[in-house]
Structures are given as C-alpha cells and as structure tokens.
Amino acid sequence: MRMRQHAKYSRADRTRPANELLRPGLPHPNGWFCVGFSREWQPGTVRSRPFMDGEVVIYRTRSGLLRATRPYCPHLGTHLGVGGTVDGEYLVCPFHSFAFSPEGPCVRTPYGPPPKASLSLLPVREANGIVWVWNSHDDTPPDWEVPELTTVGRALSYRTADLAGYPQDIAENAVDFGHLPEVHGVSVLETPPKPTSDGPYYHVEGYVGRPVPLLGTIASRTRLHFVGLGGTHLLFEFPQVGVRASAWLLVTPIGPLRIRWWTVVNAAPNDPPRVLMPLHRLLARPLEQALSHAICLWTHKDVERDLVIFNHRQYLPHPRLNSKEGPIGSLRQWARQFYPPTQPS
C-alpha cells in the first residue's frame, strides 16, 4: 500500500526514506513476526514472503500442517516459492521434482535414491489467526510463545504498508503519549498507570479522548499487550457509541532498515437488550464486518501520520527525553532482551 502524504508532512515526498540515507542503527530483533494470516494458506498453498534480509516460503500440507522454510532447494538452489507445489504431505521442488517431508529431509526423487539433503525449516506458529515465524540472531529455538489473546467478534479487516524503520519504532510509538495530541489530536484523559512486564510481554493501559464530527469527544479505554517486538495487541472500549474492538499492530523486518506494517481490526457492537437479541443475531455478522472495515480504515489512515515520520526518522540510541514523555525509557530497557548481548543499550 502506498502511504498518502498528509498536509502537515507534505515536504516528506521530496526526502528519501531513512533506509536510503542511513546505516541501520539496530539489528533485527529476536522473536515471533507476522508473515500473513491463517486464512491465506489453505491446504496445498505455497507462498513466499519477505522476512528479515531475505524471504521465507510458507506452505500447508494436504492434512493441514503449516511449515516455513528458507526458500532455496538444497539440491540445486531453486526457489521453492516460485513454482513449488504440495503433493500430499510433501513440498515438491519445481526444477527436478525432489520431494521433502514436513520434517525437512528429501524423501523422494523421480530418479535415483534421495540425497542426504534437508529443507532449512524455521519455527512457525498460528495464533490469533496470524501466522508467525521465529527469528533468532544465533538460530536458537523459540523460548517463548505467542499467547492467544481476546478477539472481538469474528470479522477481520487489515491494511498494510512497507516503509523504513524498526519494529522497536512501533513499540515505542505506542507508549509515546507526548505525540498523541500533536500528531493525532488525541487528548490523554488520565495519567496512565505504570507499565508492567513479564519476560517477553509488556503491558500498558491508557484512557484517551478523540474529537469525532457530530459526536464530540469520544473517550476510549485502551489496553495494550506487547508480544515481543513483532506485535502489539490492543483492546478498545467505546461505551459512548456501544462498540468494542480488538486490534493488532504487527511489524516485521523485511530488509536492512525496512519493515512491513499491518493494522488488523476486529470490531463488534455491544450486546443489545434481551428483547432485541433475535434481531442482533441476524445482523451481527454484517455489522461486525462493516464496523471492522470502517475502524480499520480509520485507524490506518490515522496511523499513516506516524508511518510518514518513521519512514524518514533516525534511531537515536540516547534520546534526550523529558519527564512527560511516557514510558519510552522503560520500554527500551525491556526491549534489550530481544537483541544480541553485544548490542549497545
């Protein structure tokens, strides 16, 4: 998706993105990162996605097993995402039809015995309808998992954009309360409580108000749950308009100082009085779809203001913060666990 230029940032279109002007200031972090959504992989589907400084091939076997592998066949280097197919439980290379089992080894060829060759599988998970692939700077296996978190309703809507930046930019932005009135016109209605963390998970709450035409200021209590640096889960309550929503802000490195961003929203109306429940059940699905799409579009347009800034921003390892910034320093301390030990704080 192409990012639109907002009037306040109209000169940004004459400035090259940060990845063309700067050297990366952070390495790719360890953790789970989104490559798409479960519904994109029906049995037999093979897809390639950008991932870190290369690509990853994701496929689903006929029985439903999901696998992720580095893209090149160990036989003669063919890209398995370009013409590769699924035959039962096997991933089949398009060049010589060598077949690989879900565990990785080559198990069949159309001529001669299978060579001692294996796919370079990567850990992959499905959680919250999202497909996550594990990244580690030293190839250590996962030592934590993506939890199943609350999803509102059944309809899912999402938008995406590619830009310059780091996953940590997105995490820091979510706790940067100082930018909310300046960039988004949002007022902070209560002093947020102190964030809490539990290993790879970080939790923040906020209570903000946003002016909406014809409705005045709409207050929203938001709970944010960070799942490593790859995803932030949000729960919204809009009691004034009888709507609740859950969302994911997902970010995956796709190259040096380049990221792919997803805005994902599920929304639903609050339950009506009992007398209206039959009508509610009849209209629930189309209402959820309409609300999810509208809130996702609105959220992504609003977030684009941040994305334009990220696309041209330099990461500062020692920013000059004041006492009203929000818990940026706390989040940076928490985020250190996802980088190599030699990475400066």
Written description of the protein model:
Helix content is about 20%, strand content about 35%. With about 350 residues, the protein is α+β, with helices and mostly antiparallel strands. Helix 2 packs antiparallel against helix 5. The two termini are about 35 Å apart. About 35% of the residues are buried. The N terminus is likely disordered.
Question: What's the quick description here?
Answer:
The chain is α+β, with helices and mostly antiparallel strands and 345 residues long. It contains five helices and 19 strands.
The total count of helices amounts to: 5
Mean of residue pLDDT values: 88
Ends: how far apart?
A: 33 Å
Number of strands: 19
Structural class: alpha+beta
Q: What's the CATH topology name of the largest domain?
A: Naphthalene 1,2-dioxygenase Alpha Subunit, Chain A, domain 1
User: Into how many domains do the coordinates divide?
Assistant: 2
Q: How much strand?
A: 25-35%
State the helical fraction: 10-25%
The main pleated sheet reads as: 8 strands, antiparallel
**Ranges with pLDDT <50 over ≥5 residues?**
1-10
Give the topology, please:
Elements: H1 18-21, E1 31-37, E2 46-51, E3 54-60, E4 66-69, E5 85-87, E6 90-92, E7 99-100, E8 106-108, E9 121-122, E10 124-127, E11 130-135, E12 157-164, H2 167-175, H3 179-184, E13 187-188, E14 196-198, E15 201-212, E16 216-227, E17 231-238, E18 243-255, E19 258-269, H4 277-310, H5 328-335
Antiparallel strand pairs: 1-11, 2-3, 3-4, 4-9, 5-6, 6-7, 7-8, 10-11, 12-19, 13-15, 14-15, 15-16, 16-17, 17-18, 18-19
Helix pairs in contact: 2-5
